[in-house]
Amino acid sequence: MHTIINLIDGDITNEVGSQFLGSGPYTELREFHLTQVKESREIMLKNIESLQKLYGFFLEIMKSRKTSQQSLSRPQ
Predict the structure, then answer these.
(1) Cα–chain-centroid distance for residue 53?
(2) Digits of tens for pLDDT over the chain (76 positions)?
(3) pTM for the complete prediction?
(4) DSSP-based three-state secondary structure for 2
(5) Cα 68 from Cα 56, distance rounded (Å)
(6) Which of 1, 15, 20, 75 could form a disulfide with 30 if both were Cys (CB 3.0 to 4.6 A apart)?
(7) Distance CA 11, CA 3 (A)
(8) Do the beta carbons of residue 68 and residue 31 sit within 8 Å?
């Protein structure tokens, strides 16, 4: 069993061997694997949200620095 998750396009491709289907010896592992894939997708979504928040904070800091530098360079 093999899963590829394309983070850019959001595509998920699963390859499932015959041993994981029907009455194969590893059929019970198929559901476990699919659960793990679902959980990993949720983790990645949370990580992306965290990165977006960090980027927002970074922009705020850069904006604040720019404003501070402008106020310091103005004659009083």
Answers:
(1) 13
(2) 888 888 778 788 888 888 888 888 888 888 888 888 888 888 888 999 999 999 999 999 999 988 887 777 766 5
(3) 0.62
(4) strand
(5) 18
(6) 20
(7) 10
(8) no
